[in-house]
Specification:
The chain contains four helices and twelve strands; from the N terminus they run E-H-E-E-H-E-E-E-E-H-H-E-E-E-E-E. The chain has 249 residues and is of the alpha+beta class. Bound molecules: biotin.
Length: 249
């Protein structure tokens, strides 16, 4: 996957922004080139998928967005998210020496807690003939003093301990390097970390009622292969998945 034709990066650092994705969208529409990367120490209106907020306390995480040229098909959005997830996973693993897990396809987990969310968005620009892609990455590096807000439902966790002395600039540099590296075994590296393999899950798609399924695996374009309760197999390209805990007596 060629992510950047001109191979040039334009990195801008900020103390506080509303949302790096929103600011980058404005910049993209005013002509910022592909390869523009915005990094903020905190966000006042960080966004997650499904209109959710992304908690972005100052100095406790990496909040960054990368501008790319158009990817042509709908499956490319899944591929770029999977590519990002593997790059984030490998960067975290370099520091913590533990394997992370990818929850299809936007979330990275460490020790059973969500430590990263990815939000890839397509923007169309009427002045240009083509759309562009913004890849937003939010990583919880350290838990804030008062812990994570209750509404995060005990899911959020951090990559490092509170007392760890971390070099955030180095972490960000490693992440950007990993993101732009060619990955010759993306599918294999994704599958090694697939958190949903063989799990019973609940699927929610838009306003449709939720339904249950059993996950078979990931297909070659990063769709989620599932077996429905009537035994039919299908491949999901979107949706919100939660894992069904096994009930034991
Ligand atoms: C999710 O968990 O649903 C995705 C979260 C994505 C958060 C990142 S932080 C940087 C960028 N700016 C945003 O407003 N969101 C993304």
């Amino acid at each position: 996957m060629i992510l950047l034709k001109n191979k040039r990066l334009f990195i801008e650092k900020y103390e506080t922004v509303t949302s790096t994705n929103d600011l980058l969208k404005e910049k993209a529409l005013s002509g910022a080139p592909a390869g523009t990367i915005l990094v903020a120490k905190s966000q006042t209106a960080g966004r997650g998928r499904m209109g959710r907020k992304f908690y972005s306390p100052a100095g406790k995480g990496v909040y960054l967005s990368i501008l790319l040229d158009d990817l042509k098909t709908a499956t490319d959005n899944l591929c770029i998210t999977a590519h990002t997830a593997v790059a984030v996973a490998k960067t975290i693993e370099k520091y913590v020496k533990k394997q992370t897990q990818i929850k299809w396809v936007n979330d990275i987990y460490l020790n059973g807690r969500k430590v990263c969310g990815i939000l890839a968005e397509k923007i169309s620009d009427v002045k240009r003939a083509s759309a562009r892609i913004i890849v937003g990455i939010g990583i919880n590096l350290q838990e804030p003093e008062g812990g994570y807000p209750k509404e995060l439902g005990g899911i959020a966790g951090a990559v490092f301990d509170r007392q760890d002395d971390i070099d955030q600039d180095r972490f960000i540099k490693d992440l950007i390097t990993a993101f732009f590296e060619d990955n010759h075994d993306l599918l294999g590296e994704y599958k090694e970390r697939n958190m949903l393999a063989e799990k019973d899950v609940v699927i929610k798609q838009g306003d449709e009622p939720a339904y249950t399924a059993h996950v078979i695996g990931i297909d070659e374009s990063f769709g989620l292969r599932v077996c429905l309760s009537d035994g039919t197999e299908t491949v999901l390209r979107s949706g919100e998945i939660s894992v069904r805990e096994k009930v034991t007596d």
